[in-house]
Amino acid sequence: MFLSRIANRGTSAIKKYVPGKSIKEAQAELGITEMIKLASNENAFGASPNSIRAIQEMADQIHVYPDSQSREIRSCLAEQLGVQLGEITTGNGADGVIYNLGMAVIDQGDEIIFPRITFPIYETISRVMRGVPVYSEMRDLRIDLADIREKISDRTKVVFLCNPNNPTGDALPPEEVKAFLKSVPEQVLVVLDEAYIDFTSSQAKLDSVGVFRGGMSNLFILRSFSKIYGLAGLRFGYGIGDLDLVSLINLIKPPFDVSILAERAAIDALRDQDFVHKTVEGCFEEKRFFYRQLDALGLDYIRSHTNFILIDTGRDAQEVFQALLRQGVIVRAATLYSLPTHIRVTIGQRAENERFFEALRAVL
Ligand SMILES: Cc1ncc(COP(=O)(O)O)c(C=O)c1O
Predict the structure, then answer these.
(1) Residue 218, Cα to own-chain centre: how many angstroms?
(2) How do residues 96-147 score in pLDDT, each as one tens digit?
(3) Residues 60-83: what's their mean pLDDT?
(4) Of 32, 39, 185, 267, which is least packed with CB atoms within 10 Å of its CB?
(5) What is the spatial distance between Cα 316 and Cα 190, in angstroms, rounded to a whole number?
(6) 101, 119, 197: residue to mutate for ligand 1 pocket, most atoms within 8 A of CB
(7) Final residue belonging to a domain, choices 218, 250, 270
(8) 50 CA to middle of ligand 1, Å?
(9) In this structure, which residue's CA is closest to atom 2 in ligand 1?
(10) Nearest atom (ligand 1) to Cα of 165
């Protein structure tokens, strides 16, 4: 009674986001000590030693508020990307940036388009802001840009496009994305979520920042430091967008949502491109290992442009998930994404991947 009186009505249809189970939770549930987690697309190689050292050295400064404008990391990013400082907004992970952006632009009744199978946070913030979700149907589990284009109406405010897409791992051909972006009316904002873009091969990678710099001011590019830089636990993400839009977001966002440790670690992570290369190369090699094993098992999967793979087990995904858990391996059942037989598995290091396949063979 009390809750129904006070709750924001936009929250009523929100599906609960179920994060990957943590090792601690699984250990407590099952009493298995040797667990591995391949469920949240974290960086299998950890984080850059530069970042780790930098935050250790800052431990005596945690009583001080961070720079509310994160100027230092923003200027490093602006220089690296060739955009203006005022075109970059930062947040508590890319999730934080999605929330800040949603609060800044979504009004009651605005239509917000996203693919049927994609990262669920777009829908959450859209509903909280009383926007109207409009689903674009997938075509063979791929995002259908023509369908999205057709769904754009006079009421459309935002299109969320996750490329590469989570949970499918698929990347859209760059030329198709470019043509799509060109076709979107100027008054519609396209949010291009590139959380996994660094894992994408160069042939499949769109120069999105180039498109933005080329004058597409209704494009907002979203990036995360949780994946390629391995800073998921610290929380840092950023967005690149039009100067006025970024000013508006900065006007309403929590002023200290990027901690001093997150900003420092991000700056030092950017300077360690060797770690980035090590992660990309390691992940490519392990993906090939996955493909060989999956082919041998005769399982269907989508070739991935990310650090995870969506696998069709051909069986009830929840049961496979539970059975793998009992073998000490945490993955993600894709039932959350309405895929009843798929699991999403993060690419780990070789020993973890071998353990996963040992467990999967036993389970199947
Ligand atoms: C597509 C996509 N966008 C955004 C995020 C959020 O990333 P962050 O950890 O920076 O909040 C994730 C996290 O898994 C993601 O998969």
Answers:
(1) 21
(2) 999 999 999 999 999 999 999 999 999 999 999 999 999 999 999 999 999 9
(3) 98
(4) 185
(5) 35
(6) 119
(7) 270
(8) 23
(9) 195
(10) 1
Please tell me the distance between residue 1's alpha carbon and the centre of ligand 1 in angstroms. 35
Sheet holding 111-115, edge to edge: 88-91, 237-240, 219-224, 189-193, 156-162, 111-115, 132-136
List ligand 1's pocket residues with C-beta within 6 A: 41, 93-95, 119, 162, 166, 193, 195, 224, 226, 232, 237
Given a contact cutoff of 8 angstroms between Cβ atoms, the answer to whether 189 and 220 are in contact is yes
**8 A C-beta contact, residue 38 and residue 356:** yes
Amino acid at 210: G
Query: How far, in Å, from the CA of 193 to the mean position of ligand 1?
Result: 8
Closest CA to 93 of 131, 42, 127: 42
CATH code, domain with 353: 3.90.1150.10
Length of the chain: 364
Query: In one letter, which amino acid is 184?
Result: V
Provide the token pair at 6. Answer: 């006070």
Same-domain check for residues 179 and 306 = no
Place of tokens 């999605």: 98
Beta bridge mates, 300: 312
Atom 15, ligand 1: which residue's CA is nearest?
195
> Separation of 94 CA from ligand 1 center, angstroms?
6
Could you tell me the pTM of the whole model?
0.97
Smallest Cα–Cα separation from 64: which of 240, 261, 234? 261
Antiparallel, parallel or unpaired: β 308-312 and 342-346: antiparallel
Pocket test for ligand 1, best of 40, 166, 308 (most atoms within 8 A of CB): 166
What's the domain range around 134?
Answer: 49-270
Contact 349, 41 (CB under 8 A): no
Q: Which of 42, 191, 198, 224 to mutate to test the pocket of ligand 1 (most atoms within 8 A of CB)?
A: 224
Same domain for 290 and 255, yes or no, is no
**Which spans in the chain are helix H?**
2-6, 23-30, 49-57, 71-81, 93-105, 121-128, 145-151, 174-183, 208-213, 243-252, 260-270, 273-297, 317-326, 350-363
